[in-house]
């Protein structure tokens, strides 16, 4: 029975006898044999080598590290340490075994000596529990078996699912708040004076939206757009933005408490990753000398320059999307198809958003080829894999963040503000005008952009994320082994070997690597950015994130248990650098939402008008809505004779002037005093909003302790008990006579 328990399987192509690859493979396996490893060979369409570590390796591990292994229950008759610890130790020894040619396993894999190495999914009680209670769609609303996940996949994976479950649970409150905001916008604020004025503006002639073949248009034609805008852009949005800033802080603070409780239950609170790494090195090679910490300012400068170049490339891609929107707007407006010409601005925004989604998919594929990206952190000379992983995480997150948000930043803060004015438009290559904002504001453009990207990411991307591994697994299963080789070699008895079926079944699963869990984290953290940073423009983001996460948890579970090979379990006592990334996103969320309300939204211009320029300031009309006349006040007058000669509108009118959205004088088109009042009010609101929100975040962080008192008291008791027990072994000092 003991002979059938194998820690790892190495897979190799069948090489010719005496070939360089065959010699290198033999040298590596000989090194393992010298360390006391038991090796079993099975030949099929590939060569499979089962390896089992000697018991003394694990005795050394237990001797060097007093840890939580005694608490774990996932052990069997032939071993004294949990399966997760066995796999982790064996994986470390395999990766760090050096041949006489000074080559390690990853060098041999690169040279195609070995194809892959993996631990086994075994048919055990815990496997059946996870498949029944976790990795199936039927239990989608049930609580996750975190302890079972930990016993099978290790603490790092268990903490990911504990964090994802906690985030999903707290999203319920954010989703309800977002839904309430939208419902309030559609009911309480539906009878807006601003949208009413736009719908009634039958005689307000607006300036053409393009240079040639575009006619003047009537403001009331955009009545529906104005109503949708006000459904998002109202007083409730400001309250919701402040709520989300507080929610982001409370979520992280409560997670810290939850993590402390979980990690204390696992007896990992005092676990030290560096100590474990040194212990594993000594187990593998008792003569090992620790690698010292290093830092090179020159290498850090190179990394910084490369990172800036990378960001510039992504900003360039955002510029390309801006050019597309400007060209598309001009072409759609001039189109003979009535639907295109009538809704040119909305269609340009939506197709631009789809194009942005396509660039996200392409750039994600570029990023997923870890080759060049994986080399960047090595320039900083990391001492441990964990340090390398942290460096890698920060760089890839910045890359993905700019990929996802560069176009949104343009829509939120630059659209309609850098396009000039009639008679003096800013043009791309001197030909295409930049887009303008709708008279009711730019926030709907941001709403559409975010809605399209989030919906596409959560439908197409998630379907592909599940389908590709499933199809790949099905194709690998269809590659049936040839039985002739075994018969020719006289190995018919090996056909009945129970290990062969198990090893082949595991080999047919999709490959996993050290970045598999990283990719899952990255996907959810980018989603968290969408849920918090521009949520003032898209209050439904938390609801979409909630629906996505409920599906994501079980989709990841199914992939891990049924479609992928078993991950190498790793110990961890927190989610690592991702916590700092989430805290940075929380601060960006305060800044982003403050900017959206101050700049993108029409909230500030309306308030300035109400308190400084409306009829209410001149007369005491308690029954009058103080925003009456706002639209007329926010539109400037342009004299038609001042159009540039080559851009005369296609349709001449008897009117001498048209209107456009801006605060400019009618004679010389310079900014009015009202523009500067609004500018000052925007700046004051931004400073006030960010300081209040950040103060509330700091108070919430102080008010909610990171570690519960119960956990602190348990740790205190453990320390006291340990010291008290030690004291019994100390001989009392003899007091001189």
TrEMBL record:
<dbReference type="GO" id="GO:0005886">
    <property type="term" value="C:plasma membrane"/>
</dbReference>
<feature type="transmembrane region" description="Helical">
    <location>
        <begin position="302"/>
        <end position="327"/>
    </location>
</feature>
<dbReference type="GO" id="GO:0046983">
    <property type="term" value="F:protein dimerization activity"/>
</dbReference>
<keyword id="KW-0325">Glycoprotein</keyword>
<dbReference type="InterPro" id="IPR049452">
    <property type="entry name" value="Anoctamin_TM"/>
</dbReference>
<dbReference type="InterPro" id="IPR032394">
    <property type="entry name" value="Anoct_dimer"/>
</dbReference>
<keyword id="KW-1003">Cell membrane</keyword>
<dbReference type="GO" id="GO:0005254">
    <property type="term" value="F:chloride channel activity"/>
</dbReference>
<feature type="transmembrane region" description="Helical">
    <location>
        <begin position="236"/>
        <end position="255"/>
    </location>
</feature>
<feature type="transmembrane region" description="Helical">
    <location>
        <begin position="575"/>
        <end position="599"/>
    </location>
</feature>
<comment type="similarity">
    <text>Belongs to the anoctamin family.</text>
</comment>
<keyword id="KW-0472">Membrane</keyword>
<feature type="transmembrane region" description="Helical">
    <location>
        <begin position="166"/>
        <end position="189"/>
    </location>
</feature>
<dbReference type="Pfam" id="PF04547">
    <property type="entry name" value="Anoctamin"/>
</dbReference>
<feature type="transmembrane region" description="Helical">
    <location>
        <begin position="679"/>
        <end position="704"/>
    </location>
</feature>
<keyword id="KW-1133">Transmembrane helix</keyword>
<feature type="transmembrane region" description="Helical">
    <location>
        <begin position="347"/>
        <end position="366"/>
    </location>
</feature>
<feature type="transmembrane region" description="Helical">
    <location>
        <begin position="392"/>
        <end position="415"/>
    </location>
</feature>
<dbReference type="InterPro" id="IPR007632">
    <property type="entry name" value="Anoctamin"/>
</dbReference>
<protein>
    <recommendedName>
        <fullName>Anoctamin</fullName>
    </recommendedName>
</protein>
<dbReference type="Pfam" id="PF16178">
    <property type="entry name" value="Anoct_dimer"/>
</dbReference>
<feature type="domain" description="Anoctamin dimerisation">
    <location>
        <begin position="84"/>
        <end position="146"/>
    </location>
</feature>
<feature type="transmembrane region" description="Helical">
    <location>
        <begin position="525"/>
        <end position="554"/>
    </location>
</feature>
<feature type="domain" description="Anoctamin transmembrane">
    <location>
        <begin position="149"/>
        <end position="716"/>
    </location>
</feature>
<keyword id="KW-0812">Transmembrane</keyword>
């Amino acid at each position: 029975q003991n002979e059938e328990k194998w820690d790892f399987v190495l897979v190799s192509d069948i090489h010719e006898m005496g070939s360089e690859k065959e010699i290198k493979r033999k040298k590596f396996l000989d090194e393992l044999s010298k360390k006391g490893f038991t090796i079993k060979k099975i030949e099929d369409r590939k060569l499979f080598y089962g390896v089992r570590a000697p018991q003394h390796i694990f005795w050394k591990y237990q001797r060097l590290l007093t840890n939580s292994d005694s608490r774990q229950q996932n052990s069997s008759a032939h071993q004294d340490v949990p399966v997760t610890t066995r796999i982790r130790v064996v994986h470390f020894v395999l990766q760090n075994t050096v041949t006489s040619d000074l080559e390690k396993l990853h060098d041999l894999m690169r040279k195609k000596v070995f194809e892959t190495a993996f631990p086994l999914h075994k048919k055990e009680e815990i496997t059946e529990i996870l498949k029944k209670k976790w990795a199936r769609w039927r239990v989608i609303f049930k609580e996750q078996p975190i302890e079972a996940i930990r016993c099978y996949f290790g603490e790092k994976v268990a903490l990911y699912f504990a964090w994802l479950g906690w985030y999903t649970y707290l999203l319920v409150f954010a989703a309800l708040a977002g839904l309430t905001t939208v419902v309030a916008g559609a009911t309480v604020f539906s009878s807006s004076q601003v949208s009413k004025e736009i719908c009634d503006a039958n005689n307000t002639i607006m300036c053409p939206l393009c240079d040639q073949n575009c006619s003047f248009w009537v403001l009331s034609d955009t009545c529906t757009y104005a109503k949708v805008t006000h459904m998002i852009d109202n007083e409730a949005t400001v309250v919701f933005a402040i709520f989300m800033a507080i929610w982001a802080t409370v979520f992280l603070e409560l997670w810290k408490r939850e993590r402390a409780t979980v990690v204390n239950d696992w007896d990992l609170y005092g676990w030290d990753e560096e100590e474990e790494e040194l212990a594993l090195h000594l187990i593998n090679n008792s003569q090992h000398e620790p690698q010292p910490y290093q830092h090179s300012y020159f290498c850090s400068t190179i990394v910084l320059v490369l990172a800036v170049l990378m960001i510039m490339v992504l900003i360039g891609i955002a510029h390309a999307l801006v050019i597309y929107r400007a060209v598309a707007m001009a072409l759609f407006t001039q189109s003979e198809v009535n639907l295109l010409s009538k809704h040119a601005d909305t269609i340009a925004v939506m197709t631009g958003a789809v194009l942005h989604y396509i660039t996200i998919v392409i750039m994600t594929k570029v990023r997923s080829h870890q080759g060049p990206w994986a080399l960047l952190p090595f320039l900083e000379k990391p001492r441990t894999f964990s340090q390398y992983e942290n460096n890698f995480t920060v760089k890839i997150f910045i890359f993905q963040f700019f990929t996802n948000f560069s176009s949104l930043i343009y829509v939120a803060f630059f659209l309609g503000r850098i396009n000039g004015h009639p008679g003096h438009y800013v043009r791309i290559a001197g030909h295409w005008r930049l887009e303008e904002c709708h008279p009711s504001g730019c926030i709907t453009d941001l709403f559409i952009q975010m809605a399209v990207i989030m919906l596409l990411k959560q439908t197409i991307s998630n379907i592909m994320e599940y389908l590709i591994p499933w199809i790949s697994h099905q194709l690998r299963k269809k590659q049936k082994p040839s039985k002739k080789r075994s018969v020719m070699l006289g190995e018919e008895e090996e056909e009945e070997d129970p290990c062969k079926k198990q090893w082949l079944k595991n080999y047919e699963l999709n490959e996993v690597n050290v970045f598999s869990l990283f990719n899952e984290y990255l996907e959810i953290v980018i989603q968290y950015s969408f849920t918090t940073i521009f949520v003032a423009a898209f209050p439904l983001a938390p609801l979409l994130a909630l629906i996505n996460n409920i599906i994501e948890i079980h989709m990841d579970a199914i992939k891990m248990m049924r479609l992928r090979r078993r991950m190498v379990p790793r110990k961890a006592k927190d989610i690592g650098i991702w916590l700092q990334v989430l805290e940075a996103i929380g601060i960006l969320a305060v800044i982003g939402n403050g900017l959206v309300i101050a700049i993108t939204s029409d909230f500030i211009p309306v308030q300035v008008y109400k308190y400084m320029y409306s009829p209410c300031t001149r007369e005491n009309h308690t029954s009058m809505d103080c925003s009456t006349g706002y639209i007329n006040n926010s539109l400037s007058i342009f004299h038609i004779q001042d159009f540039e000669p080559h851009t005369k509108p296609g349709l001449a009118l008897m009117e001498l002037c048209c209107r456009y959205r801006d605060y400019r004088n009618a004679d010389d088109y310079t900014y009015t005093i009202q523009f500067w009042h609004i500018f000052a009010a925007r700046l004051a609101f931004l400073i006030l909003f960010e300081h209040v929100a950040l103060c509330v975040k700091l108070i919430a962080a102080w008010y909610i302790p990171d570690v519960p008192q119960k956990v602190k008291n348990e740790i205190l008791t453990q320390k006291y008990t340990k010291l008290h027990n030690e004291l019994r072994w100390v001989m009392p000092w003899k007091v001189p006579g």
